[in-house]
Amino acid sequence: MTEFLTIAEASRLIAARKLSPVELATTCLERIKAVDPVLNAFLLVTEERALADAKAAETRVMSGAAKGPLDGIPIAHKDIYNTAGIRTTAHSKLLEDNVPTADSTVVRQWAEAGTVMLGKLATHEFAMGGPSFDLPWPPARNPWNADHFPAGSSSGTGAAVAAGMIMGGTGSDTGGSIRGPSALCGIAGIKPTYGLCSRAGVLPLSFTLDHTGPMAWTVEDCALLLQAIAGHDPTDPASAARVAPDYTLGLNAGVKGLRIGVVRHFFEDDHPASPATRLGIDHALEVFEHLGAEVREVKLSPLADYNAPGWLILLSEAYAVHEPWFKTRFNDYGELFRDRLALGGLIRASDYVQAIRRRRLLCLEMQAAMADVDILVTAAQPAEAPKITEVPKWAMLDKPNFTIPFNVTGNPAMSVCTGFGAGGLPVSMQLVARPFDEATLFRAGHAYETATEWRKKRPALVA
Amino acid sequence: MDEMTFAARVKATGLTPKPEDMPKLEALVRDMDRAAALVRGPRSYAEEPLSAFRLPTPSR
Q: Between 3.30.70.240, 3.40.50.300, 3.40.50.720, 3.90.1300.10, what CATH number should domain A7-305+348-456 receive?
């Protein structure tokens, strides 16, 4: 087997009966045994389940009954996704012994697509408190340099995909928890439009900002993974009644004629990004122009104007979720989650209401800004990954982040690796599209990845 | 807000942060109050829709 394959490549080989799903799962399990003791991406490896899934996939393929492009593909789930009969902890002492009786919708959908489940992945505690060193399991580390932070909260998924332990995984994104780890781990990750993918059976953080979505090595792989989970789910009250298009159809259409708006003030004035981050974005814009896209600058309200309602809503809603346990099991939470969430208890109801009203105006602003452009480009993270021991307790509030604006507005947004900065750590850009236009995001991201060399480089730890 | 008022607010929530974290927590709450001021604006409540995401159909 080739050392590293994308989902698209493996899928073609499996369909042609040139790659055995059992061999593929075994390779991933061996890689987990070799590198996960350093990276801590997995909270639980479900080896027996993985081999059973892989054997079933192999039987289907050999009998001409393969389910589609995800049949036999090794994946794992962030440990806030309920898995029937398999421990789901949210990386927290509070749920150390929690074994759900039913799968979340997304877990079920990927299983029905034939994926091979390798286990449950590290997260920041309840998708917000991390990196923490006082929980029952250690925090995940960055495969490009294990002394560094992989970002979060989908930290285990970012680390496991980048290290080739899995080909794709689930993340969740309330303020950037798919796009942050995708950016710092040098992979691709999409937060789809609010309402496109079900949150049913996923432990909530903030009802009106939570999104589920896939993370993978390439944009094309994200498209394949999203295809299996996009669409209406009546068991999620926020699910949109829409039928998803075929994301692979326009994937190779290129960007000729695409109108790209750069939100430059976000990463140059509002929160100046590192030189390598800016260089990566500028180079990506040159690539897009070279491929025939038209690039122009777009102005939005300052980043802080999006962060203010975003954090007020997130912290208020998260506090409402956790208040009963906060009153009875305060000291069972890790310090980071406990102290971050405490802020939510101190927000006034009227401020929450005003934040929701402001949110509506920002949605209208975003709609107007995107009337004449097809996608926006901005930063996903301010810089390369910091050391894991140097992340401040309230880091998320110290400076405005680049990702929460699109949780506030609900637009689809994706991180794409744009190269490497200080110490060989990845840098990235964020692509944003109109609501339910994930296909254009994939088209642009795939065109960029195909025109550049970044997808050929893997972390030295596993390469 | 003065220290007593803030301590009382924290106590009212039932939270018990570490004493050494109280100054930083208070500073963050002040930041949040400033953020909250950012989101207030002159706008009629009659204009509020049921859903933040239900936007007008684009005219183009």
A: 3.90.1300.10
